Amino acid sequence: MYLSALLLAVAGSVIYHLSLKHVPQGVNPFLTLAVSYGLAMLLCLVGMLFSPGSRSLLAVNWSSSGVALGILGIELGFLLAYRTGWQMGVASLSANVISTLVLLPLGFLLFREQPSLLRLGGAMVSLTGLWLMVQK
Q1: What is the Cα–Cα distance from 84 to 5, expressed in whole angstroms?
Q2: Vertex 33, ends 81 and 104: CA angle to 5°?
Q3: What's the pTM?
Q4: How far is CA 82 from CA 10, 44, 62, 65, 117, in A?
Q5: 121/118 Cα distance (integer angstroms)
Q6: All residues at 6 or more sequence positions from 81 whose CB lies less than 8 Å from its CB, including other chains
Q7: Other Cβ atoms within 10 Å of 88 Cβ, number
Q8: How far apart are the first and last CA of the chain?
Q9: How far is residue 16's CA from residue 24's CA, in Å, rounded to a whole number?
Q10: Are 99 and 131 in contact, with CB atoms under 8 Å apart?
Q11: 3-state SS, residue 71
Q12: pLDDT digits (tens, 9 = 90+) for 85-101
């Protein structure tokens, strides 16, 4: 399950970026996101029937609001980035590398996730890769 969860995220990301790149330029970005959210909600409601865990809204906490804000920021940010000419690979890598650099110290401070020299080295390699990707 460990690897398959990551592969599902990768497949979802590829579908997401390819689809977002094809959103017509003249469509209101909030309309296209609202349609996408509606379809995603329908899929989630069906998936909920086949997945274990509480189905009570009382079991949901504040984190759902944070996830919603995060989803909106990610999707609107990428949609607007693509409309202004960002390339898929560069935009995706840039957002992920910068997010990782922000999340590493937050993971340590908030969740006591332990940094290591190997992880810090990986972050430096990622930054180097990002720098290479943005060179013209």
Answers
A1: 32
A2: 55
A3: 0.89
A4: 19, 27, 31, 26, 35
A5: 5
A6: 91
A7: 15
A8: 40
A9: 15
A10: no
A11: helix
A12: 999 999 999 999 999 99
